[in-house]
Amino acid sequence: MTLLRLRIKLCRPIVIISRKRNEGGISLSAKSNTKDVIINTAARLFFSQGYHATGLNQIVQESKAPKGSLYHYFPGGKEELALVCIELANVQILQAFQCTFDKHDNTGDAIRQFIVDLASEAEAAGFTGFLPFSFWAAVETSCISLELRTACQRVFSNWQDAIKQQLVVEGVPLTVAAETALLVISLMEGALIISLTNQSKEPLLTAADYLSVVIKQSLGGK
């Protein structure tokens, strides 16, 4: 079974791919494996250097996949690959949110831990090698493709809905829950950009503490 594990903390792939092994070493001959490697490579490049800076030739070169295979699996080329990577980011972040929610008694503590983990990960990476989703996907692609812009809108909507629904379950009024969820995503993404720029996790930690208080106030004021 070919495994593709793309674990993203809001903006970047961490564990990319595990490949089949045989006595001769790593095999990339299976069709599904070739497709996974192309997706994996594209995701890594998009999340590390952005959409515009990533070309199909670089994806082909670094994936070591035949160029014909790329167009076979992704006849839409770079845009189609980006759509796949955007959806991977969406699914993985939703899973990460749910996992964090399951480990905490309230949404305030969960969101705080989510952002603290993100800050630690950014620091461990030297604040290099990844871009916030809002920058590489939403900002870079929104003006060049309606389909990419729509996909990014759907991602942000899904992330906000995940937080909103969690708050509603805890008794927060729907309107307040929606506004709080929007604030969480906006501040988290903005703090990540500042942390990367300043090469400091302090903006993220400040956002984590502030959002925890705001969320708990919304819970207390239901």
Please describe what this structure looks like.
By secondary structure, the chain is mainly α. A two-stranded antiparallel sheet has the order 1-2. A two-stranded antiparallel ribbon has the order 3-4. Helix 4 crosses helix 5 and helix 4 packs parallel to helix 7. It is elongated and about 60 Å long. The N terminus is likely disordered.
SSE topology sketch:
Elements: E1 3-4, E2 17-18, E3 21-22, E4 25-26, H1 31-49, H2 56-63, H3 67-73, H4 77-102, H5 107-124, H6 133-141, H7 146-169, H8 174-198, H9 202-220
Antiparallel strand pairs: 1-2, 3-4
Write a concise synopsis of the structure shown:
This protein is mostly helical. It is 70% helix and 4% strand. Helix 5 (107-124) packs antiparallel against helix 9 (202-220) and helix 6 (133-141) crosses helix 7.
What are the main properties of this structure?
222 residues; mainly alpha; two-stranded antiparallel ribbon; 9 helices; 4 strands; disordered N terminus
Taking pLDDT < 50 over at least 5 consecutive residues as the criterion, the unreliable ranges are 1-30
DSSP, total strands: 4
Oligomer: single chain
Mean of pLDDT: 83
Major sheet attributes:
2 strands, antiparallel
3D shape: elongated
Number of helices: 9
Strand content: under 5%
Helix-and-strand structural type? mainly alpha
Portion of residues in helices?
Answer: 55-70%
Order of helices and strands: EEEEHHHHHHHHH
The separation of the N and C termini measures 48 Å
> Rg to the nearest angstrom?
19 Å
